[in-house]
Amino acid sequence: MMRIELKINGSTMSAEVDDDTPLLWVLRDTLKLKGTKYGCGIGQCGACTVIVDGQTARSCSLAATAAVGLEVTTIEGLSANGDQFVQKAWQDIRVPQCGYCQSGMIMAATALLGKKLFPTDEDIDREITNICRCGTYDRIRAAIHAAANGRT
């Protein structure tokens, strides 16, 4: 075990970890940031997506030790009350059905909009690789376009 310091949502937090402990479990179990979800455990579904230095990362397959010195943003870091522009668009368009994948989906959309002000449908299809079992992809795309147009 080793003690590491992570910069999470603008704050420095420390945790005792094994060198191969996934960031997901440090976030959820040690730091009690439960918004990041466990989905598949192999980095495929995207439920565990966080933003690391402006890029999406699947926290289930990223060792916490690899995040030392980097800025990690979780869904909790977007807004204290769910009114960040992507979260607001998600609510306005009524994207979630079951909602399980939504925190990872919102993080992926936020990262995309951080790179591209007005993404095309093709940009969205290429960049948003998260899986939604309910199949709300049309609403996800509409919410991303709404967020792009409604930033404050």
TrEMBL record:
<dbReference type="InterPro" id="IPR001041">
    <property type="entry name" value="2Fe-2S_ferredoxin-type"/>
</dbReference>
<dbReference type="Pfam" id="PF00111">
    <property type="entry name" value="Fer2"/>
</dbReference>
<dbReference type="InterPro" id="IPR002888">
    <property type="entry name" value="2Fe-2S-bd"/>
</dbReference>
<dbReference type="GO" id="GO:0046872">
    <property type="term" value="F:metal ion binding"/>
</dbReference>
<dbReference type="Pfam" id="PF01799">
    <property type="entry name" value="Fer2_2"/>
</dbReference>
<dbReference type="InterPro" id="IPR012675">
    <property type="entry name" value="Beta-grasp_dom_sf"/>
</dbReference>
<keyword id="KW-0560">Oxidoreductase</keyword>
<keyword id="KW-0001">2Fe-2S</keyword>
<keyword id="KW-0479">Metal-binding</keyword>
<dbReference type="InterPro" id="IPR006058">
    <property type="entry name" value="2Fe2S_fd_BS"/>
</dbReference>
<feature type="domain" description="2Fe-2S ferredoxin-type">
    <location>
        <begin position="2"/>
        <end position="78"/>
    </location>
</feature>
<keyword id="KW-0411">Iron-sulfur</keyword>
<dbReference type="InterPro" id="IPR051452">
    <property type="entry name" value="Diverse_Oxidoreductases"/>
</dbReference>
<dbReference type="GO" id="GO:0051537">
    <property type="term" value="F:2 iron, 2 sulfur cluster binding"/>
</dbReference>
<dbReference type="GO" id="GO:0016491">
    <property type="term" value="F:oxidoreductase activity"/>
</dbReference>
<dbReference type="InterPro" id="IPR036010">
    <property type="entry name" value="2Fe-2S_ferredoxin-like_sf"/>
</dbReference>
<dbReference type="InterPro" id="IPR036884">
    <property type="entry name" value="2Fe-2S-bd_dom_sf"/>
</dbReference>
<protein>
    <submittedName>
        <fullName>(2Fe-2S)-binding protein</fullName>
    </submittedName>
</protein>
<keyword id="KW-0408">Iron</keyword>
